[in-house]
């Protein structure tokens, strides 16, 4: 790392820490700390939430997948696009969840089912979450050690200490500062600024890579794989075990089934100004994700080319020796491409990539810390109390819990030995909760006959099967015939069947869905945000719009955004169907596949990255301004703290049902 690289790296860190100090004054209540006052606009949510997917661990996880399968998995991924886009545009789960006004998922589960089930789900989600999060700071710190060119160990007080452990402590400390000051308000603003800077940095990074590597060099490298393990021809990749068409099909099902069930970004699910803004943030997130994936994909294939193409043999010569010094086999695999990246980038650009990674680490880790720390307090600690905490005490408890999660992640990351691909570890730990929770959430939001016994049964069955899979996989390792995705898939199917059967056997009375969703006569029980728009007049919706999920809340601009995204997905879905049939009859030669990926895998995503970089920068700045205006006008309601009384949020329950509540001021 040169002095210029360190300067480039320090600039975004300075900005983020300054934002943390300046925004804490806007945090006045538990609802502000937990949900940002529920006044966030779509672009702010899209950029801020998306930043948690820009950290070093995401780069490493996708590097692993691309190094194994190249572009071949991407061919099959387009088959899932129409399904995922309908889910996003229709607001499946997301819209109705925001209507409940719950701050955490388990709060909704108490409204829909029972207090005991809320506690059970809170404990289960918390345990699964901190296990999932436990490796993230460690993987990110390992990446930074090698990309910064730091030694593996540092002598501290006469004892050798792994450098990644020290870096992990530094990054977690910075993240805690951001998270603890103003809660979600600080996180949203800092993550949005990080996201805007990252989007603009992506464009510079793309330009640098295209100047260093030619497509001919990349194509020659990707073509040099034996038959059955092609990185460009999906019909000649039968030897690739984990990342194939069956992986994509199962992941499509699990993604839809687990919509919003995983709570690593739970605060963002309740932070939108209204349900429609939450839905549009999900739609816009699809556009932004394509731009980010372009950078990671290009960086990965360039790193592979750097390692294997003879034109770069001299520059890449030190990489194998550095990787060989890593004692853990799985870490060796993970760090091969990051080490290559540290050698291939020029001065200044290397610092820029480090800045992107560090901003992503802060954004991702802060969201995890806030989510799991809040879930412990809201869904494990608070339900056992007979009286709610005063706002000041409540916020202090949230902060202490967040610190506890950071301490756990530090020691877990330091001691845990990785034996899985990161993506597989994420999937199996997620399934500990989502395996049963998907059925419980979808059934609870859309089926009035879902029952409490069914929720218990589905959650226990799904979690037991998934947790058992983790244990067996850890014992037998890669020799076990099922990977993490396959375990999660079958556990989820059994949980769905359990929920449906038990509900049909035990339902005696339908649940009042209108009251839970604040519809009809119950709409008057909630207090509108000062800047929230009045009810949208009915608009005529076409048949295609209804099929896709467009409703009367969509403005003309919203329809263009959603329609263009859906059209883009359908276009490539059709290309995959036609191309698959074509290859069955007359297989494309390698040269055709290389030309295809040059356009679809590199050129088109880069164009999207350019467009979204400008588009979302404007939208993010606009929404940050609106956030502060709404926060100044917002009314502090001390009863809005996540407590549930008789299947209603405390601030909505009738006066006769409300608890005696402390009157201490919320602001600290």
UniProtKB/TrEMBL annotation:
Its main location: membrane. One of its GO terms (cellular component) is plasma membrane. It is found in: Cell membrane. The keyword Ribosomal protein does not apply. GO terms for molecular function: symporter activity. Keywords: Cell membrane, Ion transport, Membrane, Sodium, Sodium transport, Symport, Transmembrane, Transmembrane helix, Transport. PANTHER family: SODIUM/PROLINE SYMPORTER-RELATED, SODIUM_PROLINE SYMPORTER. This is Solute:Na+ symporter, SSS family. It comes from Terrimicrobium sacchariphilum.
